[in-house]
Amino acid sequence: MPILPKRHKDLKNHPLGDLFREAEKTHLESHKEMRSWREVQREEAAGKELLDCMWVYVYKFDKHGWFTKCKARLVVRGDQQAKSTHEDTYASTLAGRSFRTLMAIAARFDLELLQYDVVNAFVNAELKQDVYMRMPGGYRKPGLILKLQKALYGLRQSPLLWQKELTTTLTNIGF
Asked: Where is the Reverse transcriptase Ty1/copia-type domain positioned along the sequence (predicted)?
């Protein structure tokens, strides 16, 4: 497989550039459907933090190792956020030791395990703070930026917001 592109402008000369451009469009369409942001005039963010974003490109393969598609994901440059703004960003994760214990119990009692994936998980969580982002490379519009409405990948607070969203949802349905 060719080396993955690093930036949108690399797609021009990439052998699979058309597939990655299509993946970008698909990804942006999913954000549109989820109302992840809205376009605002640049002046609205005057004096406020304005973050960059970047494209992350990957190849996807099936369980036999055969190439299936090119994927593109837009991520916010959360490394540009002031750390003091989002101090409470801790989101719990399952420790490896706990995972191995669960697997041992499941094996011992011959339990069936199910795994679920929440597509674009973070984007399901509402963003309460005002966060502004420059439009992604290849899709910029003069004088416009994006005001985020959902917790995008890359924001410091996104894991915590998603954990709260998931916890609330599971509690509401009786877990």
From this structure: 49-175
Indicate the domain borders of the chain: 8-82+91-172
Q: What angle do CA 72, 75, 81 make, to 5 degrees?
A: 170
Q: How far is CA 32 from CA 20, 73, 135, 151, in A?
A: 18, 14, 13, 14
In single-letter form, the type of residue at position 90 comes to Y
Angle (CA) 114 101 110, round 5° = 50
Interacting residues of 22 by C-beta distance below 8 A, sequence separation 6+: 70
Residue carrying the six token digits 């497989």 = 1
Distance CA 21, CA 8 (A): 8
Q: What is the DSSP letter of 127?
A: P
DSSP-assigned letter for residue 110: T
**What's the whole-model pTM score?**
0.83
pLDDT digits (tens, 9 = 90+) for 68-81: 999 999 999 999 99
CB 133 within 8 A of CB 38: no
